[in-house]
Amino acid sequence: MRVSIRAQQFGQAFSRQAIMRGIFVSGLLILVAVLAQLIATNVLNPIFIFAALAASAGGVALYKLGRFEYGFLAIALTASLVNFFTLPTGRESRIVISLAITVLMLGLWGLQLLFHRGAEPRLKPSPVNIPLLAFVAVNIIAYVWGMLMRDPLVRIWPSFPNVQLAALLVNIGLPLLSLMVANKITEVRWLRYLVWIIIGIGTFAVISELLALPWNTIYFNGIRGVFSMWAAALCLALALFENQRPLWQRVLLLAVCGLWFYRNLILTTVWLSGWIPLLIACAIVVFIRSRKLFAVFSVIGLALITINFTDYYNRVVVSNEEEGSTSRLDIWSLNLGHVANHPIFGMGPAGYAVYNMHYHPQDARSTHSNWFDLLAQNGIVGVISFVVMAAAFIRVGVSNVRATYKHNTFEAAFSATTLAGIFGALVSMTLGDWVLPFAYNQTITGFDNAAYTWMLLGGMVSLYLIRLRRGRSELAPAVAAATAPKVASTR
Question: Which residue of 64, 101, 246, 405 lies most exposed, with the fewest beta carbons within 10 A?
């Protein structure tokens, strides 16, 4: 019976009229894509046309069937398994497939919101909505502000307007991706699929890295930044919280987590972004699960640091000084000088790059810090709006943990990981541009690894909304019974 109903719904979704509309929309999308390619490069690239065809077909299917969840899984898969293939832009920068899928889905979601019908609100109410949309609005204002208030002496190069527009797209696309996940995922099973995709990719990547297998071009860009933090923390949380999981599976999950620690903390100690966020997130997961276990791990960790202090000092402090990491203080100082002249909304997305090239071209470098990027690009207003948005995510995460941490379930593991991951990600923003990729450092291809952070934060909000809806449904019978008129009994 259920199969026949689904078949009937599928048939209705793809009726003759719907197919004709789909063909029309696809044709328009393909035409726009081809014209854009011709304008940008004067070359008709077959790969671009094929990608446009595939995107149009996929977009129509997502729109008609309403299953955006498959699109989220596609983003998670392509972000780490299709790094070898990107779309041309006519410039040096390339568009990664995960970004292309995200833009397509945001466009389709925008159409749904625009032509929304029904009693339900366009956006599901959550503490994150207003702060997130405010941050998006600040980015757009900063983009316009940066162009209007640019120093008259500063000269831009021909490709800069395109780069700045792409930077804006990434800076607003990632938060909007999070909001879309929060609104479109309504069942916990999709969060499970997303988590296991990340764990699967993480297992494949860390084993390949340790064995030096020759296919890192497949996943390299996707596992940069804080991807390893998410992969390791998810493995640890599932092993600690899901007691009903078979012991051998929990041991394997702990082993994968251990491999990431070995790869980031032991083999690449000098890369602070690799192990500090990972260590923070995993420590918070353990703390949420058990205070006693956290105390044990803390004592062991302090003992290891004490015994090997000289070695760690040389590998962390001395090595970073030799590689020039301490020169970041000089870079931040230079950029603060420009921020002082543009304090409110900054210099716009990627805007401080042209100031650096004009005023001190011999030392024109990116800040290698998302916090300074935020300040330089979006000003004080941008930093405040981001902090408020982050606080809203933390509020949701704390609510999830308080409701689930006593339960040995996937939801408890997911809640602990996402809350811990927020703090790890915020720390990583000091060490690199891993949350909002900077156009002249990671470039827009950094969308691959940053997408995991924003999708998991969106998943956190999704779980929060699922819990609220579940609570209302459980409360409804009791409320109905309490408010129902009492009928006097008669003998």
Answer: 246
**Spacing of C-alpha 50 from chain mean position:** 27
Can you give the residue ranges of every domain in the chain?
A: 121-468
Which H or E run includes 94? strand 94-96
Cα radius of gyration (the chain): 24
The residue written with tokens 């044709």 in the block is: 27
pLDDT digits (tens, 9 = 90+) for 80-89: 988 888 877 6
The H-assigned helical ranges of 150-271 are: 160-184, 188-210, 227-241, 247-261
Q: 10 with 2: CB under 8 angstroms?
A: no
186: tokens are 């309504």
**Residue 382 to residue 293: CA distance in whole angstroms:** 39
End-to-end CA distance of the chain: 46
313 or 225, higher pLDDT: 225
Provide the whole-model pTM.
0.84
154 and 341 Cβ atoms separated by less than 8 Å: no
List of residues 6+ apart from 9 with CB closer than 8 A: none
**Cα separation values, 442 from 42, 331, 378, 431, 475, Å:** 27, 17, 18, 13, 48
CA–CA dist 171, 185 (Å, integer): 22
The DSSP 8-state label assigned to residue 88 in this structure reads: E
Distances (CA, A) of 306 to 279, 300, 451: 17, 10, 37
216-247 pLDDT tens trace: 888 899 999 999 999 999 999 999 999 889 99
